[in-house]
Amino acid sequence: MIQPALCLAVAFLLGLPLEQTRYVFLLSALPCGFFGILFGENFKAIPDVASSSLIASTLFGIITLAGWIILLSHLH
Questions:
Q1: Which helix (H) or strand (E) holds 74?
Q2: In terms of C-beta density within 10 A (0-12 exposed, 13-18 middle, 19 or more buried), how is residue 25 classed?
């Protein structure tokens, strides 16, 4: 939740147009990726914490991303 809020603040400080601000902001609000797990599999180094954090991030991201989208729809 902090990263998208910081991104939004920086976008406003830089004076980005609203359309670009929405794109940048939503990209920053997406849950973390799973490439670390995929790369770790090649080296037999997949900690259990990585899988758990990916699942938690995705579930929490579903809720927060919906909230951020609603907030962005009210920006003019």
A1: none
A2: buried
Residue 66 and residue 26: Cα distance in Å, rounded?
10
Q: Using one digit for the tens of pLDDT, what is the confidence trace for 16-36?
A: 998 898 888 888 887 766 666
What's the pLDDT at 34? 64
**What does the block give as tokens for 31?**
């849950």
> What is the pTM for the complete model shown?
0.59
Query: Mind listing the pLDDT tens digit for each residue in 52-62?
Result: 777 888 888 88
Quick one: three-class SS letters along 26-51? HHHHCCCCCHHHHHHHHCCCCCHHHH
Rounded CA gap, 76 and 32, in Å?
28
Residue among 40, 36, 33, 27 at smallest CA distance from 68: 27
